[in-house]
Design brief:
This protein is mostly beta strands. The protein is built from 2 helices and 30 strands. It binds calcium ion (CA) (2 copies).
């Protein structure tokens, strides 16, 4: 016993920390896009639990994984990510993304734990594309706060029902979490679009949505299908609102709870999405109350979209050449609207490049959530080296939507 105590005392305290389970309130993680500005605002983040420096958070959306933490001034924030959810010491999918604020600017250090070699796991440097990790940090009275996102490549984007192993720790700046064979206790999380709190065992629900993507100024309709296997389950009131960043831009209300028709009923929620709403994944919250128990909370993710979004179907990297070269592909305009959309499409490239196809077009998207494809051909002058913007623009009435592809020639 004494030996064990001495052994523990000699260990770096962060070693022990990453070996202990991180107690999470829920293994279900909702799609929810944060605003990366270094400040954790109310309901912007879903709690993952606590670390030594303060609260830590984790969530996702179909483009990225997001994490945040409150750290003391002498601490770093470390995300341990077991991407396939098969164990920290299993496979080559185990990443450590460590952010330091020691200089007053966030710096990121990434390494990958490759455990495929039978003779022992090994640290490999990097392993994630430069630019795929975005961080924002800000000093606080007691330390600093990190908000971060990792956007995996298009063939490995996060998906609903995916299982991940995660932990988020605050550790001393000088604590090396070194030896690769050291186990980490991961929280196994499931990425989802729906979750509930206090749901009775003999009750179930699902949201019925035509689409989870709604453009600003358009109407969102969600029907909640509620089923009970026990007639004693009943409620007085039903209230609904948007959480966090969508809170002020979507309807809030409450209604008397309608009578069950035998074992089921439907609740309906309608709201126009305000023009000022931020784009991204947001959470709607419905609460069912019976005046006695804690409310049953039903949470569901929706995405606030622009009327037109752009999908660049072309490479973003070319080898530099002594000859002029041609970039070919297409840009797909995707409508988030229920009605027909039409307007002007334009493409801009650096002034000495020639857009031989797709410089401008009239587009018409007739169907709800339809698409329109613009073929693109751009001639790049010989000897071009560097990173250059190629910007697509589409109009819908007075509105102008744009997206820029950064093309690298190296
Ligand atoms: Ca924020
Ligand atoms: Ca793994």
């Amino acid at each position: 016993m004494l030996t064990a105590l001495i052994g523990a005392a000699l260990l770096n305290p962060s070693y022990a920390q990453v070996g202990q389970p991180q107690l999470t309130s829920s293994s279900v993680r909702l799609a929810l896009t944060p605003d990366l500005n270094g400040h954790i605002s109310d309901e912007e983040w879903d709690s993952l639990g606590m670390s030594s420096g303060g609260r830590v958070f984790f969530q996702w959306d179909p483009d990225a994984l997001h994490w945040a933490g409150e750290a003391k001034s002498d601490q770093d924030v470390v995300l341990s990510l077991d991407y396939n959810g098969d164990g920290w010491l299993v496979g080559d999918d185990n990443y450590e993304i460590r952010t330091s604020f020691a200089t007053g600017e966030p710096t990121i250090l990434v390494r990958r734990l490759d455990a495929t070699d039978k003779s022992g796991p090994q640290w490999k440097p990097g392993g994630l594309a430069a630019g795929a990790i975005q961080v924002a940090a800000a000093a606080t009275a007691s330390g600093w706060t990190l908000e971060a996102s990792y956007s995996p490549p298009s063939n490995a984007k996060p998906k609903a029902s995916q299982r991940l192993g995660i932990r988020v720790d605050t550790v001393g700046q000088d604590d090396d979490l070194g030896e690769p064979f050291r186990p980490r206790s991961m929280a196994f999380l499931v990425l989802q679009f729906n979750s509930s709190i206090n749901l009775p065992a003999n009750m179930s629900w699902k949201p019925i949505l035509r689409t989870r993507e709604v453009a600003r100024e358009e109407k969102l309709t969600v029907e909640y299908e509620i089923k009970r296997d026990d007639e004693t389950i009943d409620f007085d009131r039903f209230s609904y609102r948007g959480e966090g960043l969508i809170g002020d831009f979507i309807a809030t209300g409450r209604q008397p709870f309608p009578p069950f028709d035998g074992s089921k009923l439907k609740l309906r929620y309608d709201s126009i999405i305000a023009e000022e709403a931020r784009s991204g994944w947001r959470v709607l919250r419905a609460e069912l109350k019976d005046g006695l128990n804690e409310p049953v909370v039903l949470r569901t993710s929706i995405r606030v979209a622009n009327f037109i979004e752009f999908d660049f179907r072309m490479t973003n990297t070319l080898n530099a050449s002594d000859d002029a070269q041609i970039l070919r592909g297409s840009i797909v305009l995707k409508s988030s609207a229920m009605g027909r959309l039409e307007g002007d499409f334009n493409l801009e490239a650096p002034s000495d490049w020639t857009i031989s196809n797709g410089a401008s077009a009239k587009y018409l998207i007739y169907h709800p959530h339809g698409t329109f494809r613009v073929p693109i051909e751009v001639i790049i002058p010989k000897g071009t080296v560097g990173v250059f913007p190629v910007t697509a623009t589409a109009t819908v009435g007075e509105r102008v939507m744009t997206k820029t592809l950064y093309l690298t020639l190296k």
